[in-house]
Design brief:
heterodimer; A: alpha/beta; two-stranded antiparallel sheet; 8 helices; 14 strands; about 25% helix; about 20% strand; B: alpha+beta; three-stranded mixed sheet; three-stranded antiparallel sheet; 6 strands
């Protein structure tokens, strides 16, 4: 974590390489870490309001129609009793109405356009740690690779173990280590795409950091979030972590080969998932034994074909 | 804790606004957070206090306005209140709900001087 401002992004590394950008604080100190592609959004609106105030001790009240324009610069007492201390410069309100995730969403839009132009279908795989995501991915790649080019972006706090497991299948993979970060964001994926250069009309799997909370909020530019839940976890996870199940299009219920040894209520789990997301699709799979893998891979192929066709369509130009 | 990333986003927006308005200091930052949004308020306040250090927002207080959750209930064919994701329609008990409000995470206003 950056010790000057507390920013966690300073430790993000893509396959061991840190990406530095100078970051300057208001006090003039500068240090390097990841604050890239600043897009300023700087329209401001004056905030008009009516109030009573005191001009240099000659007190008078304005009627309710008296309005100060933007930049009105004299001391005044607000209705709420909040008074400025003598000697402090007057303050004003600037209305900005900006989404906190605006910057991430801008990078996500860029990634989405990058992928669409190339006819690439991108899946953001999310789950808690230990749900079997990486095994599901290696097994999926082995079955898809002969007919479909595949690349993978791996997200973990530390180690390049998962990328190495993926590369052993023959698919190009790039590891992003988030350091103390708990999720991938769209700018990390943008940089990874530049390095990885996925082939046209391919499938890109993004394996997010194992975490059922934080990755839900961050659009990476993917076509779909797919949540992997294993039957060794509680069937009420969709209710405990609703944000993630609401954000996902498809839930893969993994390790179903273990069901005979567990007291796991599959119907209840699916019902809970549909309480938070009535439209969520559900497939039951076992990555190690092969159950349901054909259906899941048919889902991937169908969407890959759709992405390819969407690219072939001529763009509609607004008149 | 993704609230740290959200706090960074807030401070960047505030710094940009302060620069564009030649502000020396930022006194307060007003947020609008929907009850269904992906954010824990205490974690966000903690993160904001860490991230704002050494920036123009160093002395700024964080003011949070909460917006209620609303959803479109398909069986009722009407807009209803929704306090939490996963809750049923308060009228008919159905979960066939489409969230229409309450997921906002916005910086609304910045008080500068």
């Amino acid at each position: 974590m950056c010790t000057t401002c507390g920013c966690g992004n300073g430790e993000t590394k893509i396959e061991g390489e840190a990406h530095g950008h100078e970051h300057r604080h208001a006090d003039g100190t500068a240090h390097s870490h990841d604050h890239d592609h600043d897009h300023d959004h700087d329209h401001d609106h004056g905030h008009d309001h009516t109030h009573d105030h005191d001009h240099d001790g000659r007190g008078h009240d304005h009627g309710p129609d008296h309005v100060h324009g933007p930049g009105c610069g004299h001391d005044h007492v607000h209705h709420d009793g909040h008074a400025h201390a003598p000697g402090l410069p007057p303050s004003r309100m600037v209305q900005i109405e900006q989404d906190i995730l605006a910057k991430n969403n801008q990078h996500a839009r860029f990634n989405r356009e990058f992928l669409a132009e190339r006819g690439i279908f991108a899946v953001n795989l999310v789950s808690s740690p230990g749900s079997g995501k990486t095994t599901l991915l290696t097994e999926s790649i082995k079955r898809l690779l002969p007919s479909l080019p595949i690349t993978v972006i791996e997200g973990d706090q530390q180690t390049t173990n998962d990328a190495e497991r993926i590369r052993a299948t023959g698919a190009p993979a790039l590891q992003i280590n988030t350091g103390k970060g708990c999720h991938l964001d769209a700018s990390m994926v943008e940089r990874a795409l530049e390095r990885l250069q996925p082939p046209e009309e391919s499938v890109l799997f993004i394996e997010n950091v194992g975490n059922l909370v934080c990755p839900a909020a961050f659009d990476l530019g993917e076509a779909h979030k797919v949540v992997v839940l294993s039957v060794t976890e509680g069937e009420d996870k969709p209710l405990k972590y609703p944000d993630m199940f609401k954000a996902a299009t498809l839930m893969l219920l993994n390790k179903v080969d273990l069901l005979p040894y567990l007291t796991y209520d599959v119907a209840k789990c699916i019902e809970y998932a549909r309480r938070v997301n009535p439209g969520i699709e559900v497939l039951q799979v076992s990555a190690t034994k092969g159950d349901g893998m054909d259906t899941w891979l048919a889902w991937v192929r169908l969407h890959a074909v759709t992405a390819r066709h969407a690219r072939a369509q001529p763009k509609v130009v607004a008149e | 804790m993704h609230e740290m990333s959200l706090a960074e986003g807030i401070v960047q927006i505030v710094e940009t606004t302060a620069r564009a308005n030649d502000a020396g200091t930022v006194r307060a930052v007003w947020l609008e957070l929907g009850v269904l949004s992906h954010v824990e308020h205490d974690a966000l306040r903690f993160s904001f206090d860490v991230v704002k250090r050494g920036t123009v927002a160093d002395g700024a207080r964080l003011e949070i306005r909460t917006t209620p959750g609303r959803a479109w209930c398909m069986p009722c064919g009407d807009s209803v209140d929704l306090a939490r994701l996963g809750d049923p329609c308060p009228r008919c008990g159905s979960h066939q709900l489409q969230v229409t409000q309450g997921e906002e995470m916005r910086v609304k206003e910045v008080e500068i001087a």
